[in-house]
Amino acid sequence: MNGTLYELLAGVFSYPHADFQSAVARARDELRTACPDAAGPLQEFHDLLPWHDQDDPLKAMEEIYTRSFDVQAITTLDVGYVVFGDDYKRGELLVNLSREHKEVDNDCGDELGDHLPNLLRLIAVHTDTAMVNELVRLILAPALRQMVCEFTPERLEQKEQLYRKHHRTLIESTRDRRTMYGLALHSVYLVLQTDFDLPAVDAPTVGTVEFVDTVGQELEIEKDEGGPLGGCQSSEVTDLAKGTPGPC
Questions:
Q1: Angle, CA of 48, 183 and 124, to the nearest 5°
Q2: Among residues 188, 15, 8, which one has the least CA distance to residue 109?
Q3: What is the pTM for the complete model shown?
Q4: Residue 165 CB contacts under 8 Å (≥ 6 apart), including other chains
Q5: Pick from 138, 127, 134: which is nearest to 105 by CA?
Q6: Among 10, 90, 149, 220, which lies 20 to 30 A Cα-Cα from 97?
Q7: Alpha-carbon distances, residue 184 vs 40, 73, 88, 147, 227 (angstroms)
Q8: Tens digit of pLDDT for each residue in 67-82?
Q9: How many degrees, rounded to 5, is the angle at CA 82 between CA 79 and CA 86?
């Protein structure tokens, strides 16, 4: 397992900064050698970065990040919430993860221990292979499959309708860029699939749903189909939420 690669991938999901484009390029270059199959989606992600066509590319990237993971989020980077929602089992997971982060001096900054970049950095440095395997198989891999699913055109359209009803304003984004983080998430999953022999997951479809550029329409509120982030939760995640988290 390439610890440097996981550290670089963590940087892809950090909040955008002035050196963000270069950080993505470094992760992509490492993938070309370490996991070529995962390099393709991250190259697509890199090609969609707004540095080549925006007057203020950092501000544009911050808006894309916020739309994807924070305000009116497509998904969340808090992996434990993806798996357990508000269930008490997430609290147990966070307690266990806090112990593991401290053991290897992994600074989680202002985020919780189940934040995706923190988990990728934990994998990069932790020496307990049994713990890392359980963390990936029981928590991280099921969550990533769910997160990639949230970037499908059908799920995005459902969310757009709900947001138009409740928020009245939408962060402006291009049709392609609103789904670009699905590519980066898929790239991470492909690395995990190679290192931990995981089942395959379909790649997200980018740019197939037109972005809604008008707001304020009175639309019927669509019910959330279940699960912390909607109706495409896999059976594996559902089963896991009924059990107990691993020793991580």
A1: 115
A2: 15
A3: 0.78
A4: 218, 219, 220, 221
A5: 127
A6: 149
A7: 10, 16, 29, 11, 23
A8: 899 866 789 999 999 9
A9: 105
